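We store chain and fold; thus.
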Amino acid sequence: MNSTEKPIDWLECESCSRKTRHRILHSIDEPIWDGPDYRVGTATWSIVQCEGCETFSFLNTDEQVHGYDDKGNVLMAVKKVLYPRRAIGRPPLSDIWHLPFHVKLMYTQTREALCNDMNVLAGIGIRALVEVVCKERKAPGHNLEKRIDGLVQNGDLTPAGAAILHSLRTMGNEAAHEVKAHTSQDLSTAFEVVEHLLTGIYILPAKASNLPK
């Protein structure tokens, strides 16, 4: 079978940051059983490739019996999960190599928690990411609250920006101490705020240093 004959599916592409056409390069099916004699569906494992950016991904498709309609016809439920996991519309920061090592490590792991719907860990990670930035920038203060204000003293942050980071700090505290899972939408907004912080402190200055004097 040549590439033009391969099945096509519309899937979320992390690189393109939207749904795109993916070629299904190879698939293996296995039955899903509910007990030794009752098959309830099929699990399909596929290697797929985006037709736009040509990035490869791994796709798991579960199709299982969900119930029956009024006429007794079988209703099937289909669930698709892509690996690596992704949050559609949220590509990673470009030029991430400008981030200091520990900042980049915490950013990457927090984003993975967000993409994998680990909302408690994502909340803790956002707080930890703010803290590691404060530490790397040597912001004064004996706790995170004071260090955020210290970023303002250093000129890394505006007072309005500090007020937003204090809200993120509170979210992180609730996740860490109360095991509170904030909504994916709230966490996505919080993570976007932190990305703007990282861009302003690290990425834009590094790129601007290459501009003509």
About this structure: The helical segments are 101-115, 119-136, 144-154, 159-178, 184-208.
